[in-house]
Amino acid sequence: MIEGTRRLRLSTCRRFGILGLSIFLFLPLSAKTIVSAESEKKNPDNRELIAHAVENLVSGWNKKDSEAIVGLFLPDAVLVMPTGKIARTRSGIRQRLLDEWNEKLKDTTLSHVVEAVSLQGSDAAVVKGRYRLNGVKVLGFENAPEGSFIFRHKRQQGRWMILKAELLRDQADKK
């Protein structure tokens, strides 16, 4: 009887020992995940800040403030307009914006919805969403083309900057 009790205790200790060891090994990993999630919420360079750069671009568009928009881009950035026109570098982006605002996008207002923000490491991110461009006039009729956007961001000197912005029209809007 005493031998059987000793075996039971030894077996129980071994089980709890393995369980205890498992808890000891996995607890730091789950604690790190919890801390990481908490720090991401408190981190000033989180998904919300990256999405806020898109809001700043939309605000700059609606104010026709090319300097505010250009300041969101890296010096060697690329902007792909819904018209398919491509601008490279800040000065090219500035000129493209001014040209578009002097043509058929003159009285437009931009609205958007951010659908996803994906962090790719600690210094890269992709923002995807939808936009609507109200006030486009074609042959005297007002139109509101819609489409998707993809913004590739890069963190430089602690600030999220746009590396490439693609504004893509929906197929129904292309003519």
Total count of domains = 2
Return the string of H and E elements. Answer: HHHEEHEEEEEE
What do the pLDDT scores average to? 77
Number of strands: 8
Low-pLDDT residue spans? 5-13, 18-42
The major pleated sheet works out as: 6 strands, mixed
Walk me through this protein's architecture.
The chain has 175 residues and is an alpha+beta fold. It has two domains: 1-42; 47-173, Nuclear Transport Factor 2, Chain: A (Roll), CATH 3.10.450.50. It contains four helices and eight strands. The strands form two sheets. It has a six-stranded mixed beta sheet with strand order 2-1-8-7-4-3. The protein has a two-stranded antiparallel sheet with strand order 5-6. β3 (109-119) and β4 (124-134) form a beta hairpin. It is globular, with a radius of gyration of 26 Å.
Quick overview:
44% of the residues lie in helices and 35% in strands. The protein has 175 residues and is of the alpha+beta class.
